[in-house]
Amino acid sequence: MPANKKYLSSPWQRFLKITAGFVGGYFVMLSLHLLLTHVFDQKKVVVTAFITGYILWAVLLLVAFLCKSGWKISGIYLALIVIFYGAYYLLNN
Amino acid sequence: MNIRNYNIYFNTHTISGIIICAILYVIFFAGSFSFFKDEISAWQKNRSAHTHQAAANDYDFLLDSLHAAHNLLGRDITFYIQDNNVQTYVNMGASQDTTVKKKAAAQLKPEGRRGRGRGNGDAAYFQYDFQRKQPASYAESYDMGEFLYRLHFLAQLNQVPIRIGTPFGYLVAGIVSFLFLFALITGLLLHWDKIVSNFFTFRPWNKWKTVWTDMHTALGVIGFPFQLMYAVTGVVLIVNSVLILPFSKFLYDGDSEKLYTELGYNDDTTYEYRYQPLPDRVALNPYLKQVADRWPDSHVSRIYIKNYGDESMHIAIDAVPNFSRNFAGAGKIVFHPATQSIVHEKSPVTSASYVDRVKALVYRLHFGDFGGYPVKISFFVLGIMGCLVIISGILIWLVARDKKSIPAHKRKFNFWAANVFVAICLTMLPVTALTFIAIKLNPAADQAFIYRVYFYSWLALSVFYIARHKLHVTNRETLLTGGLLALCVPLVNGIQTGKWMWNAQRMGAMDIFVVDFLWLSVGVVSLIAFYRIRLDGKKASKPKQKVTAKKGVVPIA
């Protein structure tokens, strides 16, 4: 019953996906919530992140596993971080 | 379903699950008992908190004795009142008044001034018991309730000397709850297509693998919302600095105290010290009486006294609604004694803000303190169900890999991994029951005693069952010994204290009654489970215990 190996990735790819999902996912989640402080009251965003933040982070970790290539997902997450944080930064100044 | 995705869910669910299983079991097991933390404390000390009224708490008696010993003029004093209204933690800061401070400093060795307790002049932090009107240090007031409560977030592991900026035990607990959240999401997606049909499938008379699979799926699906809530709130409670640190860095200029104050966790408001002592001593009890009259359906959770005895003295009182009145809400009232006025007021029952609501969702759900014993007992049962999901998960993992196609060395490794996990997990039941008996037999049981009894017996039993390496024997015997010991808990309590269950119930000591009742039920259920397993083992001992052993079933006449 163990999962069929042919659908799972090589160790190097897996390493890429775990780092992208765990580290990248964390910063995507964080920068998204930072950006949201421009839309909503910031203390409300912070307290909401207690729930949405962790769930989103776990989902992003899973999405990284579902992606075909570890490089691709690292790139996507990096782009999202740049967009979210960039927008947050620009709106701040 | 997309076959590739299915396999990925499957793999990630399995791997994250098997990594965390043993620790998660400990967390769930100890956590389930932690719903009754105050009850266990009352049970151990044989002092019911149930008959105690919050209104009887005499703060002025405490303040007077503190004043006599320390001269409270110009100090900040904070009371953190415990849920049972019997105990409070007291934090007394150094004085704002330089003359008082100098005098205090002269009596002490000169040290740094910041930080709680140590180094902050003559500041002090201790626990106080209103029933006995006695202060106690933390170690003195340590009991089994505190032990299990702290075990459920692995505080005891903090003593492992691995320094990475955060206490080791908390970090492990945090990572485990995050992986748990991940395993829950993948598990749900894995079963999504068959969620309805699987829910109604229970084939207890089938092969063991199907029994475990059905149990894992059915109990997992029933418990899913409960477990998801625990995974999320657990991460929040144990490693929320993961969010607090960056948010305070970006949004609050790196000042996390400011963030905590804004979210209502703390009150770090400071008032300028005026050096104008008030003519009369300020009594705290009348203010508490006033709060009780204003907000009858709530109880005080914190009291902050700022600049005691000065013209600038303020008394801030936090109150939370009783669960019968409101789920969410946080009241705050600030008095200014010099002018006899109320500076700020927010009712706990009418004006719950969004922040209050989310916080109530996180904390009250996690502590299960919003509906009295019915909720706590249901949560206890759901928590123990979580333990069963974990055990059945380990067994599925093992059986699924016990095939001819898998190389022998791998099968051996898998078996021993499962053997170790199962031995560690299942021995918790007899060990916990045993420690409850031990603390009743030894009234002087302190932290060291509880540690010794609990951890050594746990180690010994685990090693014993690991060495025997028969999973079904481990299961059966821990159920039997656990069940018998559990039944002994109310007996020993009755004999030692005379507070038999019926006496405790008649005296209104419901907290003591509940602990006995819990153990009685645990004992009965364990013995029924033991009996069923033994019946089953007799009926068809040969084909199903392939994994575990050949000379497995010892017929007990």
Walk me through this protein's architecture.
The complex is a heterodimer of chains A (93) and B (557). Chain A is mainly α. Chain A has one domain (20-92). In chain A, 80% of the residues lie in helices and 0% in strands. The model of chain A has no long low-confidence stretch (mean pLDDT 91). In chain B, helix 1 (3-34) packs antiparallel against helix 5, helix 1 (3-34) crosses helix 6 and helix 1 crosses helix 13. Chain B has three domains: 1-47 and 138-267 and 387-402, no CATH class; 55-103 and 120-130 and 269-371, no CATH class; 403-539, no CATH class. Chain A: Keywords: Membrane, Transmembrane, Transmembrane helix.
Task: Summarize the entry for a quick read.
The complex is a heterodimer of chains A (93) and B (557). With 93 residues, chain A is mainly alpha-helical.
The main sheet of chain A comes to: none
- What is the H/E order of chain B? HHHEEHEEHHHHHHHEEEEHHHHHHHHH
Which percent band covers the strand fraction of chain B?
Answer: 5-15%
What best-fitting shape of chain A do the alpha-carbon axes yield?
elongated
What's the tally of helices of chain A?
3
How many helices of chain B? The count is 20
Query: How many DSSP-defined strands of chain B?
Result: 8
The helicity of chain A comes to over 70%
Number of domains of chain B: 3
For the CA atoms, what is the radius of gyration of chain A? Answer: 15 Å
N-C termini distance of chain B:
51 Å
Structural class determined from secondary elements of chain B: alpha+beta
Please render the helix and strand layout as text.
The complex is a heterodimer of chains A (about 90) and B (about 550).
Chain A: H1 11-36, H2 42-66, H3 70-92
Helix pairs in contact in A: 1-2, 1-3
Chain B: H1 3-34, H2 37-45, H3 59-70, E1 77-81, E2 87-92, H4 98-107, E3 124-129, E4 134-136, H5 144-151, H6 168-191, H7 195-199, H8 208-239, H9 241-251, H10 256-262, H11 285-294, E5 298-306, E6 314-321, E7 331-336, E8 341-346, H12 354-367, H13 372-400, H14 408-426, H15 428-441, H16 447-468, H17 471-497, H18 501-507, H19 510-539, H20 541-544
Antiparallel strand pairs in B: 1-2, 1-5, 2-3, 3-4, 5-6, 6-7, 7-8
Keywords (chain B): Membrane, Transmembrane, Transmembrane helix
InterPro entries (chain B): PepSY-ass_TM (IPR005625)
Keywords (chain A): Membrane, Transmembrane, Transmembrane helix
